[in-house]
Amino acid sequence: MTLFRPTIEQIAALTRDDRPVCAFVYDLDALMDHARSLVSALPRGAEFFYAVKANNDPRVLRALAPHVAGFEVASAGEIRRVRAAVGLSARIIMGGPARTGSDIATLLAHGVERLHLESLQAMRIANAVAEAAGAILPVLLRVNLAGPVPGATLTMGGAATQFGIEEAAIPDAIAVLRDCPALRFEGFHFHTVSNNRDAAGHAALCAAELALARRWAEAYGLDLRLVNLGGGWGVDYADPDWRFDADAFARLLAPHLDARTRVQFECGRIVAAYHAAYVCEIVDLKRAHGRAFALLRGGTHHFRLPNSWAHDHPFAIQPREAWHNDWPRPEIAGEPLTLAGELCTPKDILARDIPVERARIGDRVVFLMAGAYGWDISHHDFLCHAHPERLFLADGAVVPEQSA
């Protein structure tokens, strides 16, 4: 799987030359190839859902729909987004905290096939709404393991977080669920870690979660139809060419699967991250207190991921020879450079003190691996700056915005 690196020629052909460039560029063909590769690595009987939170653009959803089992959503808005983009045939499963009665009503109205319950309150709300609608809603109980759980950039369980039902309270949750006639227990949900780069360790964690689910099913006389093992397949922003070993993960997990219990995964970052770039033009260069800064047409209001994760995002500088001003062209060469955006806050930084050969006003900075948790998590209208162009390429052409 290759990393999308738009060329100077591509950027020039796709963007206008009469203003500083600021654009996300997505390669939908590579995205689809990558999705097929991830799905094909899974053992027989395992299903791969795309986690919509990573990138919910309709063009991304439509591109992925033929290649994944369905879509995992975390809000009523994401349910509507999937239905509008893909249609009634798309399978949808729903998780996430802080569920409301309105969420459950939307879920039922749009044919979502399963809800992942994160608390007893959510269970009771779901039962009340489903019962009033005359429906039976399939559910999984999301488990927050006792932990600790090592090996991930983000820990969703195995620690004091707001996610899931703590392991010690699962017996109580099962007892409450038995008194909810409009809910049908189908299994357990484990989304314990996010961005785990250790394929063998992640397989061992998933195997332990499967074993725990089976012990509970046997102890409480439950029909264990399904275990959702979440996502957590990692990417490495410090090394854009590194890849999670999905084949090794699947091979190590396969002996722990059986025909009686289906297994599902819901991955987002590893699907969408690699196939987009965020391109910003350098509009100013300056020094302050011994440090060099490049100021960009863009920033964290478009691409919050580097700030959110407190990392230096990988980038390349594309030289651009055009210079139409009467004054000398400023440049910085052979020294560390900090890439800052256009916001009035010192936190608007995308990379800090990175050595560069040369950067000039008018050159473009191409931030790689910008397809997941970038635009979708950003505060777009802070200071009311112009939004970037968002260009989706398929078969060598831009997918028109109006078809989104």
CATH class category of the largest domain? Alpha Beta
Oligomeric form of this entry? single chain
The tally of beta strands, per DSSP, is 20
What count of domains describes the coordinates? Answer: 2
Tell me what portion of residues adopts beta-strand conformation: 25-35%
Helix content: 25-40%
The CATH architecture of the largest domain is Alpha-Beta Barrel
Sheet of most strands:
9 strands, mixed
Number of helix segments? 11
Shape: elongated
CATH structural fold name of the largest domain: TIM Barrel
Kindly report how far apart the N and C termini lie: 26 Å
Q: Quote the average pLDDT.
A: 94
Gyration radius (Cα, Å) is: 23 Å
Outline the low-pLDDT stretches. Answer: none
Structural class: alpha/beta
Explain what you see.
The chain has 404 residues and is an alpha/beta fold. It has 2 domains: 147 residues, Lyase, Ornithine Decarboxylase, Chain A, domain 1, CATH 2.40.37; 226 residues, TIM Barrel, CATH 3.20.20.10. Helix content is 27%, strand content 27%. Strands 1, 13, 14, 15, 16, 17, 18, 19 and 20 form a 9-stranded mixed sheet that branches. Strands 2-3-4-5-6-9-11-12 form an 8-stranded parallel barrel, surrounded by 4 helices. It has a two-stranded antiparallel ribbon with strand order 7-10. The two termini are 26 Å apart.
